[in-house]
Amino acid sequence: MNKKLRYGILGCAGIAIKDVMPAIQKSEYGVLAAVASRDLEKSRSVAEQFGITTAYGSYEELIEDATIEAVYIPLPNHLHKEWAIRAMRAGKHVLCEKPIALTSEEAKEMAAVAKQEGVVLAEAFMYRHHPRWKRIREIIESGELGELRLIRGAFTYNNAEDLDNIRLRPEWGGGALYDVGCYPISAARFILGQEPEAITVHAQFSDKHFGVDMMAAGILEFAGGLALTFDCGMWTEHRQLLEIVGSEGRIDIPHAFTVGDDEDASYTVTVRGVSRIEGHEDKADPYTMEVDDLAKAVFGIQPKLFSPDDAVQGMRVLEAGLASARERRRISFK
User: Which residue numbers delimit the GFO/IDH/MocA-like oxidoreductase domain (predicted)?
Assistant: First the structure.
């Protein structure tokens, strides 16, 4: 099959230039067709960098381009709903950066528009598309680890000195929980295949950083006494990990969320004190797999791996986590 999905890039964010645009170029089913910025010189520069023939000086122009079939949205979180809906109303399929919206109600509205317009809407949690996760889930489902007891996750980094960073704008959906806490939360829901019963989060809201949650730690409660314990932050040493603990063994994933095709994707499986390393041969670009997953759904090759409803449910947990931190209370989903 030689058909390619024609992508337009709505904004010249770092993740678009560093990760997603190169991924589309390497993909089997996608092609970069246009890029837009509110600064025409910037979009022209990016277009030249990637050999794209069309550059626009406004998002509206790209949305109105009838030759564009899909739009990737790496804009700040508070703009996701507006531009995803505008793109879908124009008949475009949408790959939207995580978190998909600011609230679950916004996410529901986006999902409803996708259904009304008959287009594909995907949330860009790229890590789930890496092939190692299929194997990790197979290990868990095999019972090799025994009964699952706990998942522990962390994702932290330090950008506390970058006071102009959009992640420090609370009204734009800034803060550690929405930026990186979403990863271990997403992973726990993905691994367990179920939604949580309750969440409790404790956070450090910093006046130096416009009141966003610079650090947060929490517990996500699942049925049967299972839980995710996690921490996330933008004010400490870089860390990312996921540990899946069972009655007979565990899986330790040291680079759980941002591993690329040129990085170490290995993880350690330990059962009754005996360890083995797996995944070291799993060389893949999860961003490329993510964009091809969208295209395959558009072309009817296979259903999309993750539905808009999954994004809605994930947003429900995130907004509850932030509310828990602000209100200093446990929030139940029952």
Answer: 133-251
